[in-house]
Amino acid sequence: MSITIQDVEHVARLARLELTDGEKSQFTEQLNAILKYAEKLNSLDTDNVEPTSHVLPITNVMRDDVERQSLPIEKVLLNAPDEEDGQIKVPAVLE
């Protein structure tokens, strides 16, 4: 598979980009070089390679959920830009 100048023009039109003739040629060459490099992967023997979702063995490092005392409301409201009736008051988003 190779990329043509028409392919580059089509993608540029979809992205609403105006490209010069030089840029079209440059991008066509670069994209074809990328595809040629990616084709090297087809020559690799991957029959005995186990599929993975990540290259490193990753485990979840979340801590256990521990119940603890909340901050007093007076202390929380000290950080609020505005408060009303013991609640944080924010500007209305909907009319």
From TrEMBL:
<comment type="function">
    <text>Allows the formation of correctly charged Asn-tRNA(Asn) or Gln-tRNA(Gln) through the transamidation of misacylated Asp-tRNA(Asn) or Glu-tRNA(Gln) in organisms which lack either or both of asparaginyl-tRNA or glutaminyl-tRNA synthetases. The reaction takes place in the presence of glutamine and ATP through an activated phospho-Asp-tRNA(Asn) or phospho-Glu-tRNA(Gln).</text>
</comment>
<dbReference type="InterPro" id="IPR003837">
    <property type="entry name" value="GatC"/>
</dbReference>
<keyword id="KW-0547">Nucleotide-binding</keyword>
<dbReference type="Pfam" id="PF02686">
    <property type="entry name" value="GatC"/>
</dbReference>
<comment type="similarity">
    <text>Belongs to the GatC family.</text>
</comment>
<dbReference type="InterPro" id="IPR036113">
    <property type="entry name" value="Asp/Glu-ADT_sf_sub_c"/>
</dbReference>
<keyword id="KW-0436">Ligase</keyword>
<dbReference type="GO" id="GO:0050566">
    <property type="term" value="F:asparaginyl-tRNA synthase (glutamine-hydrolyzing) activity"/>
</dbReference>
<dbReference type="GO" id="GO:0050567">
    <property type="term" value="F:glutaminyl-tRNA synthase (glutamine-hydrolyzing) activity"/>
</dbReference>
<comment type="subunit">
    <text>Heterotrimer of A, B and C subunits.</text>
</comment>
<protein>
    <recommendedName>
        <fullName>Aspartyl/glutamyl-tRNA(Asn/Gln) amidotransferase subunit C</fullName>
        <ecNumber>6.3.5.-</ecNumber>
    </recommendedName>
</protein>
<keyword id="KW-0648">Protein biosynthesis</keyword>
<keyword id="KW-0067">ATP-binding</keyword>
